[in-house]
Amino acid sequence: MTSITIAPADNPAKHPQPQLEGSGRNWQGRFKAMASPCEILMEGVSRAQAEEALRYAARETWRLEHKFSRYVEGNPVDRINRSHGKPVVVDDELSLMLDYAAQCFELSDRRFDITSGVLRRAWRFDGSDRLPEKSDTDNLLRLVGWNKLNWQRPTLTLPEGMEIDFGGIGKEYAVDRIVLDLNRSLPKGTSLLVNFGGDLACNGARTNGQAWVVGVEDHKKLSDSTETLSLRGGALATSGDSRRYLVKDGVRYGHILDPRTGWPVPEAPHSVTVAAPTCTLAGMLATFAMLQGSEAEEFLQQQQVQYWVQRS
């Protein structure tokens, strides 16, 4: 096996260089983005083709991260969040994300809301027993509600003090985007799997006709998997509270918040993994299920998708 360091010409210094390992026509590329380890598996391509594909994937993922992160000063999301109630005109890509956010808000009965990020000011999911005062969360609820902003494509008007946060949909969109772009650019017959921190998608079976084998994380053993799954196409995405939670008087409070109450969803599963045609759809359904709390399984059954729910 050989190991290659890829250095994109426009790779910002703040990003470690992506790494490529493999031999023959089977390759595994790795880089860091979106607070996750990112992995690109490619079969049926030459080393030069794999290098170029990894270089593109890393560069494009970093571009999306820079554009959609609420932490980047001066980017489109930051300009919206600092618009002080003034209209902001956005481009087609951001418009697509806002349209999707609006759809999620309606389909989830207002449970999925990209304006709910302000609630993080009251919550610190660090494994401690420190719960916020209800008065603090209630005060923040006045700044929550997709229905309070005005979205008339391509113009968004966000009321003073409100924020948007694409953290709940950005990574899944990036996975789908990279799979689509690489599937178009790599030679016909290439087998491809893109995995960003456990949210993943592939373009079909492996070159030998066998399925990709992936693991579903056990929330009790973060370094292990509870079971392996076979994937011949489509995507998987997981939503859960394995790493972010509070425990008070024996009650566990996961980080999935109900934007209608400002508090964690009661009786939510520890994690939900969903299989769907795209990572974006899988992620949406996994998060929707978490937001259903005790009715997560019933919701997923109604969607007629494959799913795995961990509760204990």
From TrEMBL:
Q: Which cofactor does it need?
A: Mg(2+); Mn(2+)
According to the lineage, what is the superkingdom? Bacteria
Record has Magnesium as a keyword: yes
Q: Which UniProt keywords apply?
A: FAD, Flavoprotein, Magnesium, Metal-binding, Transferase
Report the top EC class in one word: transferase
Read off the Gene3D superfamilies from this record. Answer: ApbE-like domains
User: What SUPFAM superfamilies has UniProt attached to this entry?
Assistant: ApbE-like
Keyword Mitochondrion on entry = no
**Enzyme Commission designation:** 2.7.1.180
Report any Pfam family annotated for this entry: ApbE
Residues annotated as binding Mg(2+): 168, 287
PANTHER family attached to this UniProt entry: FAD:PROTEIN FMN TRANSFERASE, THIAMINE BIOSYNTHESIS LIPOPROTEIN APBE
Please report the name of this protein according to its UniProt entry.
FAD:protein FMN transferase
**Biological source species:** Marinobacter salinexigens
